[in-house]
Amino acid sequence: MLPELGQIALLLALVAAVLQTVLPLLGAQRGLAPWMAAARPAAYAQWALTFIAWAILTAAFVQQDFSVRYVAENSNSLLPMVYRFTAVWGGHEGSLLLWVFVLACWNAAVAWFSRSLPDVVLARVLGVMGAVCLGFLAFLIFTSNPFERILPMPLEGRDLNPLLQDPGMIVHPPMLYIGYSGFMVPFAFAIAALLDGKVDAHWLRWTRPWTNVSWAFLTIGIALGSWWAYYELGWGGWWFWDPVENASFMPWLAGAALIHSQAVTEKRGSFHGWTLLLAIATFSLSLLGAFLVRSGVLTSVHSFAADPTRGLFILVFLGLVVGGSLLLYALRAPDGRDGKPFAATSRETLLLANNLLLVAACAMVLLGTLYPLLADALNLGKISVGPPYFGLLFLLLMTPLVLLLPFGPLTRWQNEDVSRPLRMLLPWAVLALIAATLAFFTAPQGPWKVAMGVAGAVWVAGGTARFVWTRLRAPGGRMGAEMTGMVLGHLGISVFLIGALLVEGLNVQREVALLPGQSLTIGRDAFVLDGVLHHVGPNYESDRGTVRMLQGDRLVATLHPEKRTYASGGQVMTETAIRPGVSRDVYVALGEPLGGGAWAVRVHIKPFVRWVWAGAFLMALGGFVTATDRRFRRPRRERTA
Amino acid sequence: MSASRARWLPLAAFGGILALLAAGVWLSRDPDRDALPSPLIGKPAPAFDLPVLGDPERRVTQADLRGAPYLLNVWGSWCPGCREEHAVVAAFANTQRVRVIGFNWKDEPGDATRWLAQFGDPYALVLADYDGRAAIEWGIYGAPETFLVDAAGTVVWKHVGPMTDATIREQLLPQVERLEAR
Fold first, then answer.
1. Which member of B11, B35, B78 has the closest CB to residue A323?
2. What is the pLDDT of residues B74-110, one digit of tens each?
3. Where are the domains positioned within chain B?
4. b (16+ CB within 10 A) / e for B62-71
5. Which fold has domain B49-181?
6. Do the Cβ atoms of A291 and B21 come within 8 Å?
7. Which of A232, A251, A573, A583 could join A285 via S-S bond, C-beta 3.0 to 4.6 A?
8. For the packed helices A2-30 and A39-62, what is the interaxial angle rounded to 10 degrees?
9. Given phi > 0 = left and psi -120 to 50 = alpha, else beta, which region is A365?
10. Whole-structure pTM value
């Protein structure tokens, strides 16, 4: 009975979304206040109804109602309780339901926090958001119903994909969906502004915290995904340029550009059209990501089951939303002559360069992701574009961005004498070069990568520190939340550079056959395989190795890498054992049994790999802190200096 | 004028992407298609001089491989399509009808060795084209790709994309039989 109620809740939510789309948009066009007023209640109703649907699906998992096809396919009776909650988003249908719920949350949040907005603006914004929710709800209900029954009811379910039975996976998808969906808010504002024909600095200021928070969530989502891939796939890498990773990385890059261009438009009134276009593009790329992941058009390690009907549905939805928005943009975009003029050497120019580089990187990722599809469509065969393409081009595009970064905050708006920021940053450039030279000659391997990482990190951190110092020393100088957020975000880049480039340069990997009692020595560390024992877990059996890590005679750590075989499918999973550390991770994975009691053992030493994720979390923190700035919540329009 | 025309650019670009995605949806219904013939077919195999993976001191040229036909299989550890076809390549190599030479394209030697250790090494020999220069001569623009070269060093067949059992049975084996009949 309950699953049918869930279905009814979804249908009612669809009705609420239709009302939320049609009434306020027409009302705003014709000036009918009661129609516009329908937007808020409809948004709350949609939230409540999607919440009910989600709770009911969760209940079906907890009670193990295998008559629901989705439950039977994604859990079984041995599944531990925690994973019964998280299995709700372990497959296509449930994760789409989660996505719909997250959209409804943003929707309700905008309805709730929008007291300061004029009624017409709010009606248009909620109307556009209603249309987006409507598309997702229709997709869920008509192509991917999570409440579908199977008859006869199976006695036992299949299992949740063992790869997803992991704490990292509990948080990764919701974070991503919160990020993707949040970009709906600036998108809806852009559409509302285009419908209205003018971009008001006040509304723009109102959307900035929403963009920052969404981007911060997306950052965390991507970082968690990368961290999960690192310890769960047993492969030792942290980024693979896989189509699904790219699908999340494109809106991230566009979102990073949007954060910066929104700041310029809000403060200086420049780049109006560009900011609107970026807001449209960022959300469109989120939708494109959904299409790429769920249509089965691109082959990827974590694709959902391919289904041309779903692909076609999202394609049509994508065409309507993005095509319609860009048509509106073409017809109504402001002509860009409204901003304050600025010289070639000014903060505006630097932020423009930032935007161009980030957008170019985004286009590069888009091209690389779609190229195999293009080759396929032109009948050139199925090919992969891998790290050789992405890695090189990304490095080429990000190098100037890192070089220019410290100049941005130190350069004045409108017009700047180049020698002033140059003089301020010269000592840091010298320091970065000295540090890089030292790193180059002391690095045991990969000197170029190490030197680049050190130089970039010192340069960005030093330049940012210089900005903070200048700021605090100025008369009446203080750091607002917005500025603190920016500083944190930029320091995050510095930390990330250390992680990404040092682990690439200094990574050591060894794979050897070890008999129990034998050892492998890497540098000062010795790894002794004590043995491999059979171990029985709740829903799997495993071979569990014991590896002692020694420095001289001192025991540093005892590690237990495992190979698990899940009871349900016989799928073998590698559980790596990791000894984390600030300056390096030691990563041990168990390979195949080689006969005669010997085992293949893989040991990686990964210097500074944690800094990759620490940097990402700092960037996300920067986004959150920025969003708390009081300025964004002031109801009245104020003059900018 | 130009500014107002520029506003239509995003829509035009999106139209192109949408057409491509539509083609993708269309193609995903029908996954089996044949590859285009290569201009190399019927021509001598391009000259190369490459180190052997795992033994960089040893270098191999196209002349060293003459005398018997060989199958050149282009792969990289970064390429999911290569992993997909690897079992098919290994099964064919096991039949011992033709030497299977690996062509490791734009890869880190460590990654490549690990990849072979994990998924099995069916190759008689793996050439390492670290910077991708030799690949340009072969007209390789993606991985996986596979070439069949006869004893005289002439390219007789080429396949782009992952090979399947059907590719081997319907395309490669007839070519191999023709070479054996000569």
1. B11
2. 998 877 778 878 888 988 988 888 889 999 988 888 8
3. 1-31, 49-181
4. beebeeebbb
5. Glutaredoxin (3.40.30)
6. yes
7. A251
8. 160
9. alpha
10. 0.81
